[in-house]
Design brief:
Blueprint (H helix, E strand, L loop, with lengths): L1 E4 L7 H14 L4 E4 L26 E3 L1 H7 L19 H8 L18 E4 L8 H8 L4 H17 L3 E3 L21 H4 L3 H6 L1 H11 L1
Parallel strand pairs: 1-2, 2-3, 3-4, 4-5
Protein name: Pullulanase
Organism: Staphylococcus carnosus
InterPro entries: GH (IPR017853)
């Protein structure tokens, strides 16, 4: 059990730590995670509950966009591709994100322990990985699927907490919709026929998790 702070960056470090302490008094092993994006508020940078201040909130996990960008590429720029999608990523940076984005590894490190890093490639926001691949890469479908599996494997096997989007294991698509919160069921539903079609990949991902 746990709690996810949506847009956690609008809150301050002290408030988050107080909440964390109170929650531990009720349930010691609760998972607390949040979106530590740097949002425009009146708070000074050093007081914001953001990913860059993760070391000040050692028991809070945060979505790690450095991992996502290094793996699949930019969420907001379709043609900027990460390592798994065929883009260039420095080897040292790959080692860094695969090891949990630790502060001890480089000056731009983020977290004290890998358990603070939520490693992800896609989620309910923005475009799915398959849709990004289809729009940013002209390789064959066979190669695109291998790239997708590589990105998902990096999420699962890297140090940190793996985060998988429902349907990611069978190349979920939302027909290219980048913000489907108000889209119809046809866009947002899980295509279970697609799961059966891609059952070999589904089983492979299950094996990685096991």
């Amino acid at each position: 059990d746990g709690f996810r702070f949506d847009l956690m960056g609008i809150l301050d470090v002290d408030t988050i730590n107080i909440i964390e302490k109170e929650v531990r008094n009720i349930k010691r092993d609760a998972l607390l995670l949040g979106e530590g994006w740097d949002l425009q508020t009146q708070l000074p940078l050093e007081e914001k509950a953001t990913l860059n201040n993760a070391q000040k909130m050692p028991h809070i996990a945060q979505f790690n966009d450095k991992f996502s960008d290094g793996t699949k590429g930019s969420t907001f720029h379709i043609n900027k591709r990460g390592f798994a999608f065929g883009g260039y990523v420095d080897c040292n940076h790959l080692q860094y994100i695969a090891s949990g984005s630790l502060l001890s590894m480089k000056e731009t490190g983020l977290v004290l322990e890998p358990v603070q890093s939520i490693n992800y490639g896609e989620g309910h926001d923005n475009m799915t990985m398959w849709d990004k691949l289809m729009r940013s890469n002209e390789e064959s479908e066979e190669i695109l699927k291998k790239r997708h599996v590589l990105a998902t494997a990096m999420v699962i096997l890297s140090q940190g907490i793996p985060f998988l989007h429902a349907g990611q294991e069978f190349y979920r698509t939302k027909q290219g919709n980048e913000n489907s919160y108000n889209a119809n069921d046809e866009t947002n539903q899980l295509d279970w026929d697609r799961k059966e079609k891609e059952i070999e990949t589904v089983n492979y991902i299950k094996g990685l998790i096991a």
